[in-house]
Each structure stands twice: as structure tokens, then as C-alpha cells.
Design brief:
The complex is a heterodimer of chains A (347) and B (548). With 347 residues, chain A is an alpha+beta fold. Chain A is built from seven helices and twelve strands. Chain A has a five-stranded mixed beta sheet with strand order 3-2-1-5-8, with helices on one face. In chain A, strand 2 and strand 3 form a beta hairpin. In chain A, helix 1 packs antiparallel against helix 2 and helix 5 packs across helix 7. Chain B has 548 residues and is mainly α. Chain B has 15 helices and two strands. Chain B has a two-stranded antiparallel sheet. The chains are: A alpha+beta (347), B mainly alpha (548).
């Protein structure tokens, strides 16, 4: 019990960068605190009542001094701000080759799914050295996904997708916490992240099995989505070859879609989710509002699988190939139209 | 120059003029209303402190062995609600502002004495509603009431508690309004704006926030209540609402509310330091204007509570920049207080010790504010104990230290008695040590990643939690001491002179305690405040003289 840490593990690519900023802030704070406290003590001793000191003509204002007080902290603060803002901006932009995971928060557990279809609860196994992107949604209240060792955190909202990315640099086990208060068992909504060597991760996934799977990827999240797609009867209208009562979905993910009312919308996760739950909200140009709502019939996880399926249809309607998981450039990636493509991960 | 001294024969003052219940509960005397606030706020401080003690006891071990999860969640919610709405926000303005503003500007009362009494009744009605909610089973949403948890999942007394905060909000609005009108219209002859004590400036800036910000929180809480009762979709996405909208509305008030809590404290420090350093305050105008800068910029910084909420990257970057700007006026104040000690003749009495604690702890609280304003660092420490430590350094290390400084400084004026100096110094040091031992380990805990609002936690966090709880018990002991000796002093304390600190403010130029109408004659002000001289023997120039 008496061996306790004073500093968290540094296990992601951004952790050292965040810590560097943290240490600079500590340094600046130490300088200012010592300056103020030092002056307080020095003046406090020197000018204590009864002590002999020169008290003649104490100044009560000095504009130059005040201007220095205005300028120096402003310049320092804005310098720190600029550094922090740039780092934050990069932390918000997932690399294009990231592995796409999904997470659903609910009272009080994390449900996670790998691109290959494996599901986990309150545990996340990931390979070291690969950027991982999480698309997250809550099925009840607000949660927040937090891995201290990676220095990353993102609120998980109901009704809206949020994303998060990280790249682990050190194999090991790390805490996964919920940090947005979410009710009685909030502090029990915890899990662990297991970072593994790529080969170990493959083995954990049952890599051999996956490699032998048919091209459709029997075990993948996308193929789970395809099953949903068939079972829910989506395929009868959204035909792959087009010409159905609904628009063909191949190649639309991430594209601009023109709507009946002349506006257009990006066919991203949110739009697909909305179209499943409230199909008549934004009708695609040239189609009739005939789709029934699936509100109450599909869970957030099923919707995520359906999105994965549509995403896997890509821009070329090529099937999702789960073997691509170890190679950064795959055909699985849709064209990124909503985000600037950053291929290099910040090191 | 002749100070306005109370007539020697004055035995009647605001406390003993009438002893009946009626004379207290129907009083329109700002000083009696201040005492009503003092009594009620002290009660809520100890209620909130009791909840905090239970929380810290639970956190001694990583398991949930003192209370159940649900009880723990209710305890931290009621701790937050009680401390923020019923202690921190009203404390300095409602107790000291009420008592001192008319005295400091040479007025007989506030501009609207009946409205002032109404504010107290609204405050008590709000508090009663919150107490009723506690009695009916409590509330477990956290003081921030974030939906959809608060409007959908929580089975607790959300509406009744929200109603309490809603009603208490009107008390705050009325007090702010009353102060603004009073400061504008009731200053004594000769008391120009730049002759006002900085305590008055600070309360003016605070009143603006109260008046402009509080209606927003009232509306926000009302909307959350409506959604919970009528299932109208405002914040809950399942009903078509937006949960982040609540956070924007909530923090639009609740961030400026931090300055409602801290600005009056800064006003207190600006009075105490010159008095005990026996010299004019350094940079009077910069301190006065920095209060306004803090109030105005503070209104634009709310979005820094939403850095991980999913708001746009550009919004976050803008709010972060604005937050950095709030640091500048705070830095100006801090350095000006420090510079005021230069060439002073410093007397180490209890109020000055608290003022020094304020500066030191506020520096740490303020600087760690820059950590949470720095976007990537905030992503890591958001909703962890780092934030808990940061805002307790501001709220307790800052506001509560200033409140205690003020209580000791003006106690002779309130009660006509002196507090026991030795015991008071002992309490001041106990509180300082207890405070730092309680909250400093929480910075480390937070950076390690311990989330807030957890009643069980990973075992490696235990040592720091044990330290924190040890500190909390010292702190609790420290807080009980002033209550004991203040009550003791009412009977056994040495009788106070009208001006025991040889201070310059108008409030010291009348008897202790003052008569119901404050001054025998309206004072005339001929010069600015803080005309102290550090040369010995001490001489000083009271701000007002009797009308010739």
C-alpha cells in the first residue's frame, strides 16, 4: 500500500507531448508562486511593525510597473495558449489509417467492438503502434471515455456520435474510467485497456481464423452489420446495384448527398443514424418518403454495426476485408471528405 | 482633522434597540438583515461541511465501506448545492456587503430596505426547499444537474432541489440590484467614484454579474424541471433535445458565478492589506478596473467547461484563449497587493494572516486554472481530482479565507466586541495547514487520473486519499474554532472601540456596533481611501469628517 505512484504511465503517442506542456506549466507556476510568496515573505519580514526600515515616500502607483504586469503575463499566457491549441488541434484529428472501433456507453458499462467484429465489455484489447479511432455513442445518459495513461478523454453523448483516437506505445494494462457522472454505479463503470504486441493481438483476435474467413469477413463488425441489414429488410429497398425504392448505399459514406429540399448533407454516422431512426427527416433527392422508422427496434450497437457495414461498402462498393487490419492502407477506408487527411501520426 | 466619532452617550445600537422576534424578522435595517444572513449561512456552511466530512471518511479506503454508492452520490451533490448556492455565493455579499456597503459610502441604509428583507426571505425559502429535498431522500445528480441524467434517470428530488436554487437565485438578483442602485445614488457628499473603497468597487462588479447572469441559471433550471415533469424535449436527445445546450446555459451563469464568489473576497483583501501594512494601496485604479475586467471577460469564458463535451474544436480554442485573458487582471491584483506591503509597517493580526493565506492559495488556484485552460492538459485532467483541487483552492483557499479575514476584521463593528487574538491566530494556522494537506494531494491524484465523484477507486490512489482525509479532519477542527470563540466573545470579549484597527473607512467613523441609522450626521468625504502612514507613531486620515 505504501508504494504509490506520483506520476501516471506514459503509454500513448500524445502522452509525452501533454506531459511536456504540463511540466512547462508547472515550471511557470513555480516561478510565479515563488516570486509572489518570496516577495510576501521578504516584505513581510523587512517591513514588519517595529523593524527598522526605510519607509520614506512609499509609492502608491506606478503606471510603468502596471504595464509590465499587463504585458509579461499576457505574452507568457498567449505563448502557452498557442502551444496548447496547436497540440490540441492535432490530438483531435485522427490519422486516416486508424483502425475503426466502436464504443457504446450505458449505465454502467462500456461495450466495445473491434473492426473484426469481436465484442468486449469493459475490456479493450488493442495492438501497440497502430492508431485506433473510436466512434462512440451512449444509449442513455452522458458518459466520458477516459484512459489516463493515454492522456485522452471524450464525452460519450446520447443521440450524437463522438470520436476519439489514440496510438498506444507500450504494451501493458491500463485503466479505463468513466469520468462524466452517470448515476449510482458511476465509479464502477470502469474497465481495462490491454495493449498487446501486434502478433499477440492477432492471436487474441483468433487471427488465423480471421485470415481464413471468406472475403465477406464472417466475423467482422461490418459483416455483423450486413446481417442486420438483411434481417431488418433494408436490402429489399437499398439494393446494392441500385434501382430500389431507396438509394443505393454503396460508396455514399462520407459523401455529400443532395436532398429533396435542395439542401445537401454529408452521409456520415449521424446522418445514417438519423435516417434509420427518423427516415423522413432528410429525404434524398429523387426518392419518396416511404421508409418506416426503426426507432425502438434497433439498439445503438446495431446502428453502429449498420454504419460499419455501409462504411465498408466504401466508395467502390468493395467488400470489407478484415485481413487488412495489420496494413495501414486498405480498401476499407472511405474517402475522407469531412476531415483533412493527415497521414502521419504526430510523434 | 476631526473624525466623526460616536457620541459618548450612545448606548443604543442596532443590536440592542429592540429584542423582540418581530423586530428581527420584520427588520428593514441592513445590519440586522446581514446578521440574519450570517446566522443562516453559518448553519449551511456547517451542514455542507458535515457532508464533506462524510465524503472524506468514505474515501479513506478504496472500497465503499462507509456509505452506499447512492448515499455517496447524494452526499457530494448536497455538499455542492449547499456550499455553492447557500454559502459561497451569498456569503460575502449578503453578510458583509449588506452590513458594510451603506456604512462605507456614508448612507443610512440600502436603497431598497424592504427589497433587502425580501431577498433574505427568498434565500431562506430556497434553502428550505433544498432542505425539504434532502429530507425527502436527497438528490444525486451532482450540483451541475446535467441532463439527461437529471431529467430522465435520477430517481431523486431533482425538481425540489432545483426549485431551491431557482428561488435563491432571485435573492441574488435582488441583492445585486439593490447594491447597484445604492452605490449609484446614495454616496455621501464628496464620495466620488475614485474615492470609493475597493470593497465597494468589487461589490459593484459582482452585482453586475448577479443581475445579468443569475436569470440565465434560473431559466436553465426551470427548463430542466419542465423537461423532467412534462417530458418536453429540451435537453434529452430521446425527446429531441440537446444535452450540450444545457451545459452551455448552465456554465454561462456558473462560470461567472465563480467570480461572484471570488470578487467580493478580493474586495475584502484590498481593505485589509493597506490597513495592516499602514500604507496606501498600490495601484488603486488598476485594482478597481481589474474587477470589471474579470467580471466582463469572465462572462465570455464559460465554454472552457466543455472542452471534452464534443463542442467544435474552434469553439474550444476560442474559449481557451479568453480564459487565458482572465488571468491578466487577476495577476494585476495579486502583484498590487504584494507591492502594497513594500515600505509598509506590517502588523500581524489575524485578518492579515487570512489575507496572506488568500493571496498564496489564490495564486495556486489561479495558476492551476491555466492548466485546465490549456486544452490538451484539460483533456487529461477534466473531471478528475485535479479540477476538484483547483476549484477548492479558489473557493475555499480564496473565498473562505477572505470570508474569515472579513469576519475577524469587521467583527468588532458587527458585535462591539473583540475576538481573542491568540486563539484566532491558532485557528488561522490550523486552517492553513489543514487546507493544504486536504487539497494539495488532490492535484497529484488528478494527474494520476483519479476521476471525481467516485466512491470506490483503484488501490494505488489510497495513500494520497488518506493524506487528504487527514487534512480534512484538521481543517474541520480549524473551522469549528472561530465559531466557538466568536460566540464566546459576544459575552466575554473585550469591548471594541469604534475604530480598533485605526482604519480609514467611513464604517469605522461611527460607533461599534453602529446605531440603527449608522451615522449621527451624514459624513462629508474630502479624499480617497487608505490614507495610512507607515511612519511611526501611526497616523492616518479617516475618509470622512463631520459636516461643519
Amino acid at each position: 500500500m505504501w508504494g504509490f505512484p506520483l506520476f501516471p504511465d506514459q503509454a500513448s503517442t500524445v502522452a509525452p507531448q501533454v506531459d511536456a506542456l504540463y511540466f512547462v506549466l508547472i515550471g511557470l507556476s513555480a516561478v510565479f508562486t515563488l516570486l509572489v510568496v518570496g516577495l510576501l515573505v521578504y516584505f513581510g519580514v523587512k517591513y514588519r511593525r517595529g523593524a527598522r526600515a526605510d519607509r520614506s515616500r512609499p509609492v502608491s502607483h506606478n503606471t510603468r510597473f502596471e504595464l509590465v504586469l499587463l504585458t509579461v503575463p499576457t505574452v507568457l499566457a498567449l505563448a502557452v495558449y498557442a502551444w496548447a491549441a496547436i497540440l490540441y488541434f492535432n490530438m483531435q484529428r485522427a490519422p486516416a489509417n486508424a483502425l475503426e472501433f466502436t464504443a457504446t456507453g450505458k449505465q454502467w458499462m462500456w461495450k466495445l467492438q473491434h473492426p473484426t467484429g469481436q465484442r468486449e465489455i469493459n475490456e479493450l484489447h488493442i495492438p501497440v503502434g497502430r492508431p485506433i479511432k473510436l466512434t462512440m455513442i451512449s444509449q442513455d445518459v452522458i458518459h466520458s471515455f477516459y484512459i489516463p495513461a493515454f492522456r485522452i478523454k471524450q464525452d460519450v453523448l446520447p443521440g450524437r456520435y463522438s470520436t476519439l483516437w489514440f496510438q498506444a506505445t507500450k504494451p501493458g494494462e491500463y485503466h479505463l474510467f468513466c469520468t462524466e457522472y452517470c448515476g449510482t454505479e458511476h465509479s464502477e463503470m470502469i474497465g481495462r485497456v490491454v495493449v498487446m504486441e501486434p502478433a499477440q493481438y492477432e492471436a487474441w483476435l483468433g487471427g488465423a481464423e480471421v485470415a481464413q474467413a471468406p472475403a465477406q469477413g464472417a466475423g467482422s463488425a461490418a459483416s455483423a452489420g450486413e446481417q442486420q441489414f438483411q434481417q431488418l429488410g433494408c436490402a429489399s429497398c437499398h439494393r446494392l446495384e441500385g434501382g430500389g425504392a431507396g438509394p443505393a448505399l454503396a460508396g455514399i459514406f462520407g459523401q455529400e448527398v443532395r436532398l429533396q429540399d435542395g439542401q445537401s448533407v454529408t452521409a456520415d454516422e449521424s446522418y445514417i443514424r438519423e435516417s434509420i431512426l427518423n427516415p423522413n427527416a432528410k429525404i434524398v433527392e429523387g426518392y419518396q418518403p416511404v421508409m418506416p422508422s426503426f426507432q425502438g427496434q434497433v439498439s445503438e450497437e446495431q446502428i453502429l454495426e449498420l454504419i460499419n457495414y455501409i462504411r465498408s461498402l466504401g466508395t467502390t462498393a468493395g467488400p470489407f476485408e478484415p485481413e487488412e487490419t495489420t496494413e495501414p492502407e486498405g480498401t476499407t477506408e472511405p474517402e475522407e471528405t469531412t476531415e483533412p487527411a493527415i497521414t502521419a501520426t504526430p510523434e | 482633522m476631526a473624525a466623526i466619532t460616536a457620541p459618548v452617550s450612545a448606548r443604543k445600537h442596532y443590536l440592542n434597540i429592540d429584542y423582540s422576534w418581530r423586530s428581527w424578522l420584520l427588520t428593514v435595517d441592513h445590519k440586522r438583515i446581514a446578521i440574519l444572513y450570517l446566522l443562516s449561512i453559518t448553519l449551511f456552511f456547517f451542514v455542507g461541511g458535515f457532508f464533506a466530512t462524510l465524503l472524506r471518511l468514505e474515501l479513506v479506503t478504496p472500497q465503499g465501506d462507509v456509505v452506499q454508492a447512492e448515499t455517496y452520490n447524494k452526499l457530494f451533490t448536497m455538499h455542492g448545492v449547499t456550499m455553492i448556492f447557500f454559502f459561497l455565493i451569498p456569503s460575502i455579499p449578503a453578510v458583509l456587503g449588506n452590513f458594510l456597503l451603506p456604512l462605507m459610502i456614508g448612507a443610512r441604509d440600502l436603497a431598497f430596505p424592504r427589497l433587502n428583507l425580501l431577498s433574505w426571505y427568498l434565500f431562506m425559502l430556497g434553502a428550505l426547499s433544498a432542505v425539504a429535498a434532502m429530507a425527502a431522500g436527497g438528490v444525486d445528480t451532482g450540483w451541475t444537474f446535467y441532463p439527461p441524467y437529471s431529467t430522465r434517470s435520477s430517481n431523486s428530488q431533482v425538481v425540489l432541489t432545483g426549485l431551491g436554487a431557482f428561488i435563491a437565485g432571485f435573492s441574488s438578483i435582488l441583492t445585486g440590484l439593490n447594491f447597484i442602485v445604492t452605490i449609484h445614488t446614495m454616496r455621501a457628499p464628496g464620495l466620488t467614484w475614485f474615492r470609493l473603497p475597493l470593497f465597494v468597487w468589487a461589490h459593484y462588479a459582482t452585482s453586475l454579474i448577479m443581475l445579468l447572469g443569475t436569470p440565465v441559471i434560473a431559466i436553465t433550471i426551470a427548463l430542466a424541471g419542465i423537461e423532467r415533469l412534462l417530458r418536453i424535449g429540451i435537453f434529452d436527445p430521446a425527446l429531441g433535445g440537446d444535452p450540450v445546450l444545457f451545459q452551455h446555459l448552465f456554465w454561462f451563469y456558473s462560470h461567472p458565478a465563480v467570480y461572484i464568489m471570488i470578487l467580493p473576497g478580493m474586495g475584502v483583501i484590498s481593505e485589509i492589506i493597506p490597513c495592516f501594512a499602514r500604507r496606501r494601496i498600490f495601484g488603486y485604479r488598476f485594482i478597481a478596473f481589474s474587477s470589471f475586467a474579470i467580471a466582463i471577460i469572465g462572462f465570455l469564458a464559460w465554454g472552457h467547461h466543455l472542452f471534452v463535451s464534443g463542442q467544435s474544436v474552434y469553439a474550444s480554442m476560442t474559449f481557451s484563449a479568453i480564459t487565458y485573458l482572465v488571468a491578466i487582471p487577476s495577476a494585476i491584483k495579486t502583484f498590487n497587493w504584494t507591492a502594497t506591503l513594500y515600505k509598509g509597517s506590517i502588523a500581524y493580526r489575524t485578518p492579515l494572516w487570512y489575507a496572506l493565506w488568500f493571496i498564496g492559495l489564490f495564486v495556486i488556484g489561479g495558476l492551476t486554472g491555466l492548466f485546465v485552460a490549456a486544452l490538451p492538459v484539460d483533456v487529461h485532467v477534466h473531471d478528475t481530482y485535479f479540477v476538484v483541487a483547483h476549484f477548492h483552492y479558489i473557493m475555499v483557499g480564496g473565498q473562505v479565507m477572505a470570508y474569515l479575514a472579513a469576519l475577524h476584521f469587521w467583527w468588532p463593528k458587527f458585535s462591539g466586541r473583540m475576538y481573542p487574538e491568540g486563539l484566532a491566530k491558532f485557528a488561522a494556522f490550523t486552517i492553513f495547514i489543514g487546507f493544504n494537506l486536504t487539497f494539495f494531494p488532490q492535484f497529484i491524484l488528478g494527474y494520476l487520473g483519479m476521476p471525481r465523484r467516485y466512491y470506490t477507486y483503484a488501490p494505488e490512489f489510497q495513500v494520497l486519499n488518506v493524506l487528504s482525509t487527514a487534512g480534512a479532519s484538521i481543517l474541520a477542527f480549524g473551522f469549528i474554532l472561530p465559531m466557538v470563540y466568536f460566540v464566546w466573545s459576544l459575552r466575554y470579549g473585550r469591548k471594541a472601540d469604534p475604530n480598533p484597527w485605526e482604519a480609514t473607512g467611513l464604517e469605522w467613523q461611527t460607533s461599534s456596533p453602529p446605531t440603527t441609522h449608522n451615522f449621527e450626521q451624514t459624513p462629508v468625504v474630502t479624499h480617497g481611501p487608505y490614507a495610512y502612514s507607515p511612519q511611526e507613531p501611526h497616523d492616518y486620515l479617516p475618509q470622512g469628517v463631520a459636516r461643519v
